[in-house]
Amino acid sequence: MSVLIVGSTALDSIKTPNAENPRLLGGSASHAAVAASFFSPVKLIGVVGEDFPKKYLQLYKRHNIDVEGLQLLPGKTFHWSGEYELNMNNRRTLLTELGVFETFTPVLPPLHQATPFVLLANIAPALQHHVLDQVKRPKFVVADTMDLWLNIALEDLVKLLKRIDGFVLNDSEAQQLTKEDNVFAALKKIHKMGPKYVIIKKGSHGSILSGPGGIFICPAYPLKTVVDPTGAGDSFVGGMMGYLATARGSIDANIRRAMIYGSVTASFCCEGFGLTRTTKTKRGDIDQRVKELEKMTKF
Ligand code: AMP
User: Fold this and answer.
1) Which atom of ligand 1 approaches the CA of 234 most closely?
2) How far apart are the first and last CA of the chain?
3) Atom 14 of ligand 1, nearest CA residue
4) Residue 89 has pLDDT above 90, yes or no
5) CA of 28 relative to ligand 1 center, distance in Å
6) Residue 217 C-alpha to ligand 1 middle, in angstroms?
7) Distance 295 CA to ligand 1 centre (A)
8) Fewer CB in a 10 Å sphere around the end CB: N or C, the chain?
């Protein structure tokens, strides 16, 4: 089965304490789509401008990502720039140029409307609603978000929580949404807002799932060196959805393993700028790290 992914398709300019890289392929949907493509066919919904390099379109195609739903509009591609502190965890946004995103309305081609797995990657909640309005009886819908939408579009986001099966957010966003410092108290409150599955991401400390099968603590793959963590969260949720879309059996039976696959896919993302390392990764490399994680967490 395939995964429909909507989100930002961007050019990212990233500064770390060691290097600076302008106009890399980025955006929540790009990271999630490449991650999901290791496991299942992907249909991408997004928008780019006339300045979007052809080599990035070819990159999507090399990963068998269906770009029929990727609009090309007159104007500039969404451009985001961020700078990391020495610890590589704290990040500051330097610049957000919306470009063609300002007028973007996602339109699903007819054959995309019945896609069973839907990932609403980080993008304005109103656009996430717009995609949900067009899909027909999806099997599993997961949404991601960011602090910006909690600040400026909370009402839309709260309404969205009633329409989705799974919600993924990081620990500071969960704290902001629920006013709870304790992650387990926050999980409980978020369930009450709608989603059956809630995943709180904790960066290099992994993530925690709360669902019908109870709590699952998912580790991050231990990396000695992080080059650029941009898109790690998107790779995590993209890898998880890609794995779920091809796994046989129920969501409950597969979601824990799917998170492990997502976590390992995200580890490759952190080892290079933008998507440079992820795109060099092979499915076998992912399977190898999953085996290592299995060994590390067995007791
Ligand atoms: P993450 O590191 O998982 O938080 O995701 C980083 C990605 O989010 C980058 O590739 C950015 O292009 C993208 N991004 C940054 N700001 C926004 C925004 N306001 N809306 C959608 N995507 C964004």
Assistant:
1) 3
2) 34
3) 27
4) no
5) 5
6) 25
7) 33
8) C
**Residues framing ligand 1 (Cβ under 6 A):** 8, 10, 12, 26-28, 80, 96, 122-123, 148, 230-234
**Ligand 1 pocket mutation pick from 8, 119, 227, 237 by most atoms within 8 angstroms of CB:** 8
Q: Which domains does the chain have, with CATH numbers?
A: 3-297 (3.40.1190.20)
pLDDT tens sequence across 154-198: 999 999 999 999 999 999 999 999 999 999 999 999 999 999 999
| Residue of minimum CA distance from atom 18 in ligand 1 | 123
pLDDT higher than 90, residue 110: yes
Closest CA to 131 of 275, 272, 29: 29
Distances (CA, A) of 46 to 33, 57, 197: 11, 12, 25
Chain centroid to CA 119: 8
Taking the C-alpha atoms of residue 78 and residue 58, their distance in angstroms, rounded to an integer, is 18
CB 3 within 8 A of CB 242: yes
Q: Could you tell me if 28 and 234 are in contact, meaning their C-beta atoms sit under 8 angstroms apart?
A: yes
CA-nearest residue for atom 22, ligand 1, is: 8
Q: How far apart are CA 230 and CA 1, in angstroms?
A: 28
Which structure tokens are listed for 263? 């976590």
- Predicted confidence (pLDDT) per residue in 95-106, tens digit: 999 999 999 999
One-letter identity of residue 124: A
For residue 3, what are the β-bridge partners? 42, 117
Residue type, 283: R
Question: For residue 15, what are the contacts with CB-CB under 8 A and spacing of at least 6?
Answer: 81, 82, 83, 84, 94
For the chain, give percent helix, strand, coil, nearest 5: 40, 25, 35
